[in-house]
């Protein structure tokens, strides 16, 4: 990972305002990095942060934004995932959410699913310096015989 990170921001419907508040509070730190978000979340964040704050907006999560984000993680184009999901609200695209969290773990990127963890991640000295994330070698899995 480079010194400047690409940070993905996603908020479920009932957590978008929480994420917007967190982003607003941490705007000074986040401004030093590249931000990418799913579409609807990006709209909420753009309202809060204004025009001068650069956000890359993907599609809305249920319309493919979660998969776009997952692809970016698999391609090594996302360094950190901040995903405020609502544990009390079932989502019609739960399988997409699970897939996004899974791919973040496979590629060993930091994942923050609540404000406390997100605060720890953005306040880490590792956020502002190069970091060599250790990737698990999945060759044994890929080379296994198929039934």
Enumerate the spans where pLDDT stays under 50 for 5 or more consecutive residues: none
- The radius of gyration is 15 Å
Please trace the helix and strand order, writing H or E for each element. EHHEHEHEHEHH
The CATH class designation is Alpha Beta
Number of helices: 7
Q: Report the CATH topology name.
A: Rossmann fold
Can you describe what's shown?
- It is a single chain.
- By secondary structure, the protein is α/β, with parallel strands linked by helices.
- It has helices spanning 16-25, 27-30, 39-49, 65-74, 94-106, 115-123, 139-142; strands at 6-11, 34-37, 55-57, 80-84, 111-112.
- The protein has a single domain (6-142), classed as Methylglyoxal synthase-like domain (Rossmann fold), CATH 3.40.50.1380.
- The protein is built from 7 helices and 5 strands.
- Strands 3-2-1-4-5 form a 5-stranded parallel beta sheet.
- The termini are far apart.
- The mean pLDDT is 91.
């Amino acid at each position: 990972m480079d010194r400047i990170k690409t940070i993905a921001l996603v908020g479920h419907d009932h957590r978008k305002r929480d994420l917007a508040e967190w982003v607003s509070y941490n705007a000074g730190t986040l401004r030093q990095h590249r931000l990418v978000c799913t579409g609807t979340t990006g709209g909420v964040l753009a309202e809060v942060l204004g025009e001068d704050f650069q956000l890359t907006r993907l599609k809305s999560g249920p319309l493919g934004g979660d998969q776009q984000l997952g692809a970016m993680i698999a391609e090594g184009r996302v360094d950190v995932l901040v995903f405020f999901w609502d544990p009390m609200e079932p989502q019609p695209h739960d399988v997409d959410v699970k897939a996004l969290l899974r791919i973040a773990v496979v590629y060993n990127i930091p994942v923050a699913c609540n404000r406390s963890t997100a605060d720890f991640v953005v306040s880490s000295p590792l956020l502002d310096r190069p970091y060599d994330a250790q990737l698990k070698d999945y060759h044994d899995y890929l080379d296994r015989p198929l039934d």
